[in-house]
Amino acid sequence: MEEAPTFAASIPAPNVQEMIRNNPLQVPKRYVKSQEELEKVNHMPHLSSEVPIIDLALLSNGNTEIVNHGVQKELLQKMKGAASEFFKLPIEEKNKYAMASNEIRGYGQAYVVSEEKTLD
């Protein structure tokens, strides 16, 4: 039997929604990537032939949207509604679904292993 993968324990990270509620004009330094970090993250030539072709639509607000994926519109609307309702909950309620230290599912930040790490 194959062993399940394990993940590095994550240290607690500040909740972005709560930071914005407290001071919407202040972006903590650890959330700002340097130009060098951005270039490293965005440079992925090895993936160009492996990425499946997906239809993207450019929205008027500058965002992109994946289209023609086959997921029914009703299901997408239900998922969006459920997510919206969850993020409206108080932080104490959301924390009941916090990510366990060796999991990748749940509410919160994953892979925060040092105070110096730039967060996404």
Strand and helix layout:
Elements: H1 16-22, H2 35-42, E1 55-58, E2 64-67, H3 73-88, H4 91-94
Antiparallel strand pairs: 1-2
Strand order of the largest sheet: 1-2
| Sequence stretches where pLDDT stays below 50 over 5 or more residues | none
Tally of helical runs: 4
SS-derived structural category: mainly alpha
Strand content: 5-15%
Describe this structure in words.
This protein is mostly helical and 120 residues long. It has four helices and two strands; from the N terminus they run H-H-E-E-H-H. It has helices at residues 16-22, 35-42, 73-88, 91-94; strands at residues 55-58, 64-67. It has a two-stranded antiparallel ribbon with strand order 1-2. A hairpin with a 5-residue loop joins strand 1 and strand 2 (64-67). The mean pLDDT is 76.
Short key terms for the protein model shown above:
120 residues; two-stranded antiparallel ribbon; globular; mainly alpha
Gist of the model:
The protein is mainly alpha-helical. The protein is 29% helix and 7% strand. It has a two-stranded antiparallel sheet with strand order 1-2.
